[in-house]
């Protein structure tokens, strides 16, 4: 299965999902995408560049170091595995893949999405999407 097909399939199961992208944080490149709302295509390109800072920026690294010192996080952990960002009209879900720790799958949903269901369905899609790489 291609990455495009995997992202399309994931979008069909995630409620109110209007865009999906597969991002390599090392290069900041969008390796695959699927959009149902043409306005989101530009958003995915911008997100691809910003995602590395979201997961690996200085503030996040310092926060993770504090959690490790407190014993709350495993020393071998690659960092945050999931980040959900709420904006005025969107829910952005970012999931780091276990197979490729420098890769992130991004789903953009309308703010009308059921948050719990969107998070659950996005987690369920992570394996097939990562396997398509």
TrEMBL record:
Protein origin, superkingdom: Bacteria
Protein's UniProt name: Roadblock/LC7 domain protein
Source organism per UniProt: Ruegeria atlantica
